[in-house]
Design a protein that fits this description.
single chain, about 550 residues, alpha/beta, eight-stranded antiparallel beta sheet, seven-stranded mixed beta sheet
Length: about 550
């Protein structure tokens, strides 16, 4: 489906001719647009509001496209609305009053939530105000099972705390309401427009999920609009945007995160009402770029972009597995014990994860720097959730691992280097695929590993590119796997109850035959402060950005 083009306008306040002239011009020059949405006061805050409207209608003006407005924000505007119109009504031609509150679903499937009026204060009530009961009735919509959010939210009032976490605050003073913040937190609009303050403010998009807590969600873009006819050209009162209804988007498209994205400015408890049943958390999202001063975030957008390669990466395609991880035609094998939990250092939801080392996060996997790195760009490719080894990964997780590997190869190639990947599934509860850059030919790297392995009683055997380790491990699920830049893979099966040197790969790589870094064999010997680690991660994150699988080349947000 093609994008819907929509115009949004701030407070008209009775300047109907100026409003209509402008939307006709924009509609003709940049359209066609599907509709105009108006926030703030459409009628003048004057005792002459009704007369001004009647004079305008008497001219029988042509309205070129549907216009939807909110209700009155002051007692002086009430007279311009029909007597009993809290549920909305047609005012003139294609100009429609939406009503006090509700959700309009257009023929194209666009969901537009709206709340008319100003917040009721000091017991003042009337058609120009909304009460907490009105907000609660809209919030209750978010408690329906499978509720994902709405496309657009229209309010006259601004939400309280909208400036929190934003790179820049609104340019002029404004008043915010906690009730509108709670409403926005609950309905999760993709766009939220507000008026009344005569301030144009386009806030950086914010997330509708909490980092490392809930499933990834779409972002919200908040915009406050100025008043029609205000003399400041920077205080814009009309805004155009394009949108595809969320009901017609895939989750990957819907959850796409702009480069600059902040935390939600509203507190979690502002949602007010608790859903009857919480859905289990299925994935985590972490915004590593928010660690860098003055920047917004990257996002988990899935297996897309430069590193895209699906499951058939350079280092070997693995045959399709059954959901449990076994190959078709083979009996189920004994699974490694799944002892995930808060004690796991690598499950992204664990409090023990050192998040300042995270480089980028996709849907099922993430890339991080190693603690106590052998070299500065010593990468770890890890699943977000608990998976013990690479041989029992679900297809979607395996696909992202392969994509990250290809991206890493491209990253190092741009620096005139090759790389090796290695995995040790021994005394390790969580898959850690490590990547180390080298300036050596793959055949030389293989020779060194085989020779030094033999000296330690470790036999490294080749395994074909498209072959899994299932037929080579016997009764043991423990192994060491090395993947070279030329596509060759070498493995060693570790028998149950056997011994394997935990630092074997680092010892070989740090030897004088390769990197010659004898003081960095053990990660604990590499002393770095948290500040130094954060600075290094920021540097590598920026360098790796052109290869990040979570970013699209044609990103235009």
């Amino acid at each position: 489906m093609s994008n819907l083009k929509v115009l949004v306008c701030g407070d008209v306040q009775g300047k109907f001719d100026q409003f209509l002239t402008r939307i006709k011009k924009v509609h003709s020059k940049n359209g066609p647009f599907q509709m105009v949405l108006c926030v703030g006061s459409f009628f003048a805050k004057s005792i002459d509001a009704k007369k001004q409207w009647d004079d305008f209608v008497a001219q029988k003006p042509e309205v070129p496209l549907p216009v939807y407005i909110l209700g009155p924000n002051s007692p002086l505007e009430i007279a311009a609305f029909p007597g009993d119109s809290t549920n909305g009504c047609e005012l003139y031609g294609d100009i429609t009053y939406l009503g006090q509150k509700g959700v309009l679903t257009t023929s194209e499937g666009l969901q537009i939530a709206y709340l008319s009026g100003a917040e009721s204060r000091s017991g003042q009530t009337g058609p120009h105000t909304y009460r907490q009961e009105d907000v609660d009735s809209l919030v209750a919509r978010s408690l329906v099972k499978d509720f994902a959010g709405v496309d657009v939210l229209l309010t006259s009032d601004w939400p309280r705390n909208i400036e929190q976490f934003a790179p820049a605050p609104p340019p002029s003073p404004w008043n915010g309401c906690a009730s509108v913040a709670r409403l926005a937190r609950s309905l999760k609009p993709r766009y939220h427009f507000a008026g009344s303050c005569n301030v144009f403010y386009e806030r950086a998009p914010y997330r509708n999920h909490q980092v490392l807590v809930g499933s990834q969600c779409h972002v919200t873009r908040f915009l406050g609009l100025g008043r029609v006819g205000n003399p400041d050209p920077k205080n814009r009162w009309i805004y155009a945007f394009q949108i595809v209804p969320m009901s017609r988007l895939s989750k990957v498209e819907l959850h796409k995160q702009p480069d600059v994205t902040t935390e939600c400015p509203y507190l979690q408890e502002q949602a007010g009402l608790k859903p009857a049943a919480e859905e289990p958390t299925l994935q985590y999202f972490f915004d590593p770029r928010s660690l860098e001063r003055g920047r917004g975030g990257a996002a988990a957008r899935g297996n897309r972009g430069r590193g895209r390669g699906g499951r058939g990466g350079q280092f070997g395609h693995q045959p399709e597995r059954r959901p449990g991880g076994d190959l078709p035609g083979q009996p189920p094998r004994k699974r490694p014990v799944d002892d995930r939990g808060p004690d796991c250092w690598f499950c992204l939801g664990s409090p023990k994860v050192e998040k300042h080392l995270v480089i980028t996060v996709a849907n099922q996997t993430y890339l991080a720097l190693a603690k106590g790195p052998l070299v500065d760009d010593h990468f770890l490719v890890l699943p977000i959730h608990h998976h013990a080894d690479s041989q029992h990964l679900p297809p979607d997780v395996l696909g992202e691992v392969e994509a990250y590997k290809q991206a890493i190869v491209a990253y190092f190639k741009g620096r005139g280097k090759t790389c090796v990947f290695f995995e040790r599934n021994f005394r390790s509860r969580h898959l850690q695929l490590q990547a180390i850059p080298l300036r050596h030919d793959a055949s030389e790297v293989e020779r060194v590993f085989v020779a030094q392995g033999k000296a330690r009683g470790i036999t490294l055997k080749p395994v074909d590119k498209g072959e899994t380790l299932d037929g080579h491990l016997g009764d043991s699920d423990q192994f060491f796997l090395l993947e070279l830049a030329n596509g060759r893979r070498l493995f060693h099966s570790i028998r149950q109850g056997g011994h394997f040197p935990l630092q074997f790969a680092r010892e070989v790589l740090a030897s004088s035959d390769l990197l010659d870094l004898p003081r960095r064999v053990h990660w604990k010997d590499v002393e770095m402060t948290a500040a130094e680690e954060t600075d290094l991660a920021g540097k590598v994150r920026r360098q790796f950005a052109p290869f990040d699988i979570t970013l699209d080349d044609d990103e235009d947000d």
